[in-house]
Amino acid sequence: EVYLVSEDCLVNLEEIIGKLAVEDTTLRTFRRAIGFGQNVKNDIVPLLVHAKDSKILDPTIRLLVNLTVPAECLLPVDLVSKSEIGRHTIYELNKLLITSKEAFVDWKTTKAVIDYMKSILEKDSKLSVQNCDSINNCLLLLRNILHVPEVNTPGETKPAHSTSLQNQILWNLFTQSVDKLLIYLMSCPQRAFWAVTMAQLVALMYKDQHISTLQKLLSCWFESTLSESSEDNESNTSPPQQCSGESSPMLTSDPTSDSSDNGDSLTLGWDHQCTQIPGSSKMNTSISKEPSEAELVTRMGTEFPTQIIVARAIKSHQIYHQTMGITCAAKHPTQPAHPHD
């Protein structure tokens, strides 16, 4: 089957965005109609996954950002919830958010967003204001999706090895090297456009993670770092290159970052490929195959994002500072002292 984008798709997207901007701010009837028709899952998300033209992708992401705005940002929840109509409105708005989050469990959705940001970064060395807004909208979409709370149905029984929607989405994001992308965006001159959004996104990635586990992983990492440093000083050897070519450490996948630092190795279900820095001829982080549900159950535990997030964040932080040190040294070389006559 081939997904074909309609010729009037762009016009329809802009029309929907326009109607959302002028909808009833009390009942939000147009937004609720989209949720009732399951349009996010059936129409908008498939368009995000299959569309390749940036002229279509950009308004699609803007529309999804609008539809995933938290209910508390749309209505005064405390006031509206006092009436029966208000409670029903809040219920339908939250239902729209939950169905949107469920649609983003599919790895293809997050990959489409990540790949779109990478395509913008590799296209132009100097980002325009429109490009910066597009990157910020991608980060806003990821932030909104991760912000959606999950509802536990009373009496519902889950399998022993089941994972939450939040953990599944985080798993997909980190297998697609979102940490490398975020580190690279931090170093961009235009980072002021998305700094606040990125801070909110990172905070949501660490949300509900056990502080004791994070502290344990940090302690193990510091101990292993000191041990490796002493061994490197004795052998005076450098580690082998992970990827050939002039690849960016911020956007290059690192196999060591997929293992927790407490000795428990987590095997990812997808193979990483080396990616190149923006401005090079090609930059692509692809997924070799989509694992079966049984493989996901056996490979993923309930708390797997904790180890991946901390291990990869620490590794990326280390690489970032090493790179910045090399850059600063190149910009400010040591000047030889001039002998006095």
Helical proportion, percent range: 55-70%
What class do helices, strands and sheet pairing give?
mainly alpha
Assembly type of the chains comes to single chain
Overall shape: globular
**Overall residue-averaged pLDDT value:** 75
H/I helix tally: 15
DSSP strand content: under 5%
Low-confidence stretches: 237-310, 323-341
How would a textbook summarize the main sheet? none
H and E order: HHHHHHHHHHHHHHH
Count the E strands: 0
Rg value: 23 Å
**Span from first to last CA?**
81 Å
Structural description of this entry:
The chain has 341 residues and is mostly helical. It has a domain at 8-150 and 166-209. 59% of the residues lie in helices and 0% in strands. It has 15 helices and no strands. It has helices at residues 9-21, 29-36, 39-50, 54-67, 71-74, 77-80, 84-103, 107-123, 129-147, 165-175, 178-186, 195-205, 211-235, 293-299, 304-331. The longest helix is centred in the last third of the chain and has 28 residues, at 304-331. It is globular, with a radius of gyration of 23 Å.
